[in-house]
Design brief:
Layout: H1 3-6, E1 16-21, H2 25-36, H3 38-45, E2 49-55, E3 72-73, H4 76-81, E4 85-88, H5 96-105, E5 109-112, H6 115-132, E6 136-137, H7 149-155, E7 161-167, H8 170-181, H9 186-195, H10 204-207, H11 210-224, E8 234-235, H12 243-251, E9 254-266, E10 272-284, E11 296-303, E12 307-314, H13 318-338, E13 360-370, H14 375-385, E14 390-398, E15 410-417, E16 420-421, H15 422-433, E17 438-447
Parallel strand pairs: 1-2, 1-4, 2-3, 4-5, 5-6, 8-10, 10-17
Antiparallel strand pairs: 7-9, 7-11, 9-10, 11-12, 13-15, 13-16, 13-17, 14-15
Helix pairs in contact: 2-13, 5-6, 6-11, 8-9, 14-15
This protein binds L-homoserine.
Length: 451
């Protein structure tokens, strides 16, 4: 081996110019860590990283002691032109999209945490990175600090991923956890999440599942080497989850979690596709995802050769997310110094996205019914007519004071099904709702995790 091979690579004299767009909780931590760890980062990259500016919407806001106010500018477009590496933490579609495209076109690699932009305009951004001969990195876009995209994209590049299943939204996990562990109702749990800074003043993106859907689209695209757009994701939020659903879950030894599920599917003719969905579901209390508490995230990846892998950690927050941003920054900067580039978009599989109706799942159906002879038989008949098999049935009389004190008593009937297509299960619920003997469909929730 030549002597040269034993020598440290050293640090080149010329610094790489870094532009930071956005100075919220993540941006502030990125700026701080770039300063605090400057020397170590330079050693890891092989060149110093020089923060040349921080683009903000307005000047004159107190940004705390970690931000050098001389770096602040409101002219993001001008800042991008001078950079070798651009960190986009503005969020939203515009101006983030244009700024990233300009950066890539000018030859700067881009690090972003912008899941909504990637899920809607990923192909356009990748093409711009390819044309510019630079990198587009976004580990921070999914599950915050958890190293997840790089393992999927690089460590598992030789394997075949079958399924990605996880909790990718910390806010909804916090809300559901408080509904379960502290008995809060949905509104109180959201208010508590807002007070702690997990949920935004307008919590729509989290509680309606938009944030999780963007992340699921990104995960599915990477896992299955195909393009999945945000609109391809079946999305249901947690706004209709009630204290009653959480209590019902407990009665069957389960908990309610907001899940993102990306699966490789095989049709009867052997053709492959993917299904991607985010929705609340009951999972067994013994499932590892059931013990993911507070605002934590956890993701299972099932691959043919590797088997099951689980990734767990903080999915949000300034400092944890800054860790993911800096990991990408060091990697892109190191590649730049070495004259190489990380992997680009991989979409050779061109898999169709299968409709939700074809997804195979299980349902927990909670009904109020008349308590008289033959009712259970009628319910069972309707379920069987739809080709759905019952796993368990639990019946409980509703006390007279709770029922309408009417001529006949009422009972609560809880049915958990075996696996069937979502279309068959949905049609079953509609048919049950139409029966005279069914006073109300109190709750319907998918059951995941086991059959
Ligand atoms: N709002 C997200 C969450 C974090 O609650 O997990 C950013 O994606």
């Amino acid at each position: 081996m030549s002597r040269r091979n034993h020598e440290p690579r050293g640090v080149t004299v010329e610094a790489l110019k870094v532009a930071l767009l956005g100075c919220g909780s993540v941006g502030t931590q990125v700026a701080r860590l770039l300063t605090v760890h400057a020397e170590e980062l330079a050693q890891r990259v092989g060149a110093p990283l020089e923060l040349i500016g921080i683009a903000v919407r307005t000047l004159g806001v107190d940004r705390g002691p970690d931000i050098d106010t001389r770096l602040l500018t409101t002219d993001a477009a001008e800042l991008v032109k001078r950079a070798d590496l651009v960190i986009e933490l503005v969020g939203g579609i515009e101006p983030a999209r244009t700024l990233i495209l300009d950066a890539l076109a000018s030859g700067a690699s881009v690090v972003t945490g912008n899941k909504a932009l990637l899920a809607e305009h990923g192909p356009e951004l990748y093409e711009a990175a390819e044309a510019g001969g630079v990198e587009l990195c976004y580990e921070a876009a999914v599950a915050g600090a958890i190293p997840l995209l790089r393992p999927i994209r690089e460590s598992l590049a030789g394997d075949r991923i079958r399924r990605v299943l996880g909790i990718v939204n910390g806010t909804t996990n916090y809300v559901l956890d408080k509904m379960d562990a502290a008995g809060l109702d949905f509104a109180d749990a959201v208010a508590q999440a807002q007070a702690l800074g997990y949920a935004e003043a307008d919590p729509t993106a989290d509680v309606e599942g938009y944030d999780a859907a963007s992340k699921a689209a990104i995960l599915a695209s990477l896992a299955f080497h195909t393009r999945v757009h945000a609109d391809d994701v079946h999305r249901e939020g947690i706004t209709s989850v009630t204290a009653g659903d959480v209590a019902s879950a407990r009665q069957i030894g389960a908990v309610v979690k907001m899940l993102a599920i990306c699966e490789r599917t095989v049709a009867a003719d052997g053709s492959e596709g993917v299904s991607v969905r985010v929705h609340p579901a009951m999972i067994p209390a013994s499932h590892p995802l059931a013990s993911v508490r507070e605002a934590f995230n956890a993701v299972f990846v099932e691959a043919e050769a590797a088997g099951e892998l689980m990734f767990y950690g903080r999915g949000a927050g300034g400092l944890p997310t800054a860790s993911a941003v800096l990991g990408d920054l060091v990697s892109a900067a190191r590649n730049r110094v070495g004259g190489s580039r990380g992997p680009g978009e991989s979409t050779y599989a061109h898999l169709p996205v299968r409709p939700m109706g074809e997804v195979v799942t299980r349902y927990h159906i909670s009904l109020d019914v008349a308590d008289r002879p033959g009712v259970l038989a009628q319910v069972a008949k309707v379920i069987a007519e739809h080709g759905v098999s019952i796993e368990t049935v639990r019946q409980q009389q509703i006390p007279a004071a709770v029922s309408d004190a009417g001529e006949q008593g009422r009972a609560s009937l809880v049915v958990v099904t075996h696996s069937a297509t979502d279309a068959a299960l949905g049609a079953t619920v509609s048919a049950l709702a139409g029966l005279d003997i069914v006073t109300a469909v109190v709750g319907v929730m998918r059951v995941e995790g086991e059959d």
